[in-house]
Amino acid sequence: MAEAFIELDRVEKVFEVRRRAGFLRRERRQVRAVDSLSFTVARGEMVGYIGPNGAGKSTTVKMLTGILTPSAGRLRVAGIDPSRERTRLAHRMGVVFGQRTTLWWDLPLIDSYRLMHRMYRIPDARYRENLDRLVELLGLGELLDVPVRQLSLGQRMRGDIAAALLHDPEVLYLDEPTIGLDVISRTRVRDFLRQVNAERATTVLLTTHDLQDIEQLCSRVMVIDHGRLVYDGALAGLHEVGESERTLVVDLERELPPIEAPAPARVVRVVGPRQWLAFPASESAAGLVARIAARYPLVDLSVREPDIEAVIAKMLHGTEGTPEPPPDRDASPVPESS
């Protein structure tokens, strides 16, 4: 078996919350954010860690980094108890939070990197080598002298990813690492993370709402809900359990009756010359696209991925998981076949 780098054994985290219960009176109640959570992640593995808002993802990451102490259970990262040896573990991990930055707000980007050079005591030669490589791969050359507060969200995200990897961490926690990035930058970041994982066997735990991040980077996905692990396996298996669907958006040259699609694909909406077809997310779109292109006058088409929230909701509660196109006043329902 591969070496277990991250280990959680029946980990719990309970918060005590006070709330007003009347005039001059407050009551205490306990909120269980993580409930008997157990899993392992092997060294060098890239794992997607997903779930609805409030499921316990951030609480888990904060315990893994030593920011929070578990209420019960056993947790180890590289054999270290994060809450007891947080400083020691800090030299072996990198963290990127999509909505927060580890960079110094009023300083040029390069000054943040220089400060981290000293904080982590990175050898000079290694620092220069890592910095040059990160700057090139993440396209940061023109941004080094720009104050962090003047960077766009996408530029800052790339800057944060570089900062998290300057000291060669063994494990990287990523929270929405592609948020705010354009298509080219998003592809560059994904390629870079894949390369870092392959070359340096960096263990990666990725939380995201973008299914394409998971599909392109992770061979394994874990789903957490109400603090409990409800799925652990391949993404294809998650699609099958959740019966999720992708949507093929087809623009025709003119308005036509609903496209005759091979089962299980089906037309779910028609608006003028535009039609939406739903098909299982576990299946390739290639055959469906080829069939439509051969029989209908195409102008354009695109594939929309299922929303992670919808996939999980369908898996947990049996609610409809088919992605809905945006409302349109001119939309007409698909006519029933006679």
Automatic annotation (TrEMBL):
GO terms for molecular function: ATP binding; ATP hydrolysis activity. One of its GO terms (biological process) is response to antibiotic. Keywords: Antibiotic resistance, ATP-binding, Nucleotide-binding, Transport. It is found in: Cell membrane. It holds the Pfam family ABC_tran. InterPro entries: AAA+_ATPase (IPR003593), ABC_transporter-like_ATP-bd (IPR003439), ABC_transporter_ATP-binding (IPR050763), P-loop_NTPase (IPR027417). GO terms for cellular component: plasma membrane. This is Methionine ABC transporter ATP-binding protein.
